[in-house]
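Quick question, first post here. What does this chain look like in 3D?
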Amino acid sequence: MLLLSVAAGFLLTVVWSAVFVDRTIGGNIARTLLGHDPEAPISGVVAGIVFAFTSGLAGTFTACNIAAFATVAPLLDTVGSRWGRAAQALKPLGPLSLGMVTVSALYGVLVGFVGTSMPQFSEAQSVPGVLSGRSVQSMVAFGVVGLSMLYLGLSALGFVRDPFARLRRRFPHAQTLFMGVLIGGFLIGRPYPLFRQLFRDAAQSGNPLYGAAAFTLQSVGNIAIMAVVFVALSAVAGARVQRWMAKPGRAAVLTAVALIVAGAFTFLYWDVRLLARREIIPWYPIAPWAA
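> Answer (accepted):
Ran it through. Tokens below.
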């Protein structure tokens, strides 16, 4: 199970096309919702707020956000005996959102204060054989997220100690809160073009409140589709999925597979594959359409 999950995450990095997902899918979604070219300059705070949520929604399936869907599996085991009701399904989304919003808002405040001097602000082109500050920031941020998900997946299978075992007795949603923190952390290294456009606008504004609001809405947009999928799954497939999950070990396996696939993909894509794209390591297998 472990090897198959890691292999699935690795294969996803091989076939993943950032151009198709970021520009064809994300760009068209943003263009449709905004009604204009999403790369046009952001004109004012209100436009920035609208752009923040829209670009977050458009970036749902980007490589820097797709791992958020792995958080659905751990949530399924927390809904309890009434999980067929949509209102009950919303409860675990609270801690997830709290962790995500806290990190996003704090990062937005930081960007509002000092963003123009941060690596993400740079528009410098990548140079073969060199890691820019922007690339290093992405590697560190997504490396931490990916390895954290891998560790949580291994703990669900019992290979390593569960870091939330004791804390969960007093705070049942501690791991869900932490998963929200990881989702919020996506913004710290995110190179998605529309997010970097929002980042530069928030940085140049010098307004930490605007930065906090914009980044919070960006993250909310990132998980909006995931949340709808989770609530719909709970409402439509409730009793049937609950019975399937009730069998000992199934919930842990589903959680582990989701986290390991997402963790392996995130780490390999943003750390190992990135080194190959910068020609720092000699080779990484990439499908022709993803090159």
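The longest helix spans residues 208-236.
The chain has a mean pLDDT of 86.
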